Amino acid sequence: MPEPTLILLPVPLAPEISLHLIGEPVGLFDLAGGEFRSDEPPPFWAFVWAGGQALARYVLDHPEVVAGKRVHDLATGSGVVAIAAAKAGAAEVSVSDIDPAAVAAAMRNAAANGVEIVAGEPAADVVLAGDVFYSPAVAPRMTERLRKARRDSADVLVGDPGRGYFPERLFQQLTAYVVPVPAALEETGSLATGVWRMR
Length: 199
Prior knowledge:
The chain is 26% helix and 26% strand. The protein is of the alpha/beta class. The chain has one domain (6-198): 3-Layer(aba) Sandwich (Rossmann fold), CATH 3.40.50.150. The strands form 2 sheets. A 7-stranded mixed beta sheet has the order 5-4-3-6-7-9-8, with helices on both faces. It has a two-stranded antiparallel sheet with strand order 1-2.
């Protein structure tokens, strides 16, 4: 798959952060010639998703959630949530993603915003996850990862736009935002997106 053309753009719901994103109105699978190949994940990291935007906005507006703490951004994608945590005063921010290109994108975006993050999954006081319940295959694995973090005493916050696989019973809603999104990506111009804390 050819590398998509990226432009440094402000995040719609969190314009304090700029990310290298797809500039033209295309959908995720348009970049892969309309097909999904399991050996090469599509570039989720080239877009800023609603759940990540909402969680980033919440962290920027409530820095006490992360200030002075070790924070991990699980399934980081573009790194928007990790960057928000770093800007909000986290002591250390780490990122992980199943796609190594996403980790590289997060590092590149952090540098563009003048903050430092590290790759890896060390122990964390706070685990953040934006838009991770997007498929029936991925949701149970994410739920188990987040439940383990919670059992290990981490504070777990997620951003989710109601994609249908979110285990709402395990969470308490903190707030909601109407998040601007590319219509080519979501078939709508905005998504109501909740920020939730794992019980």
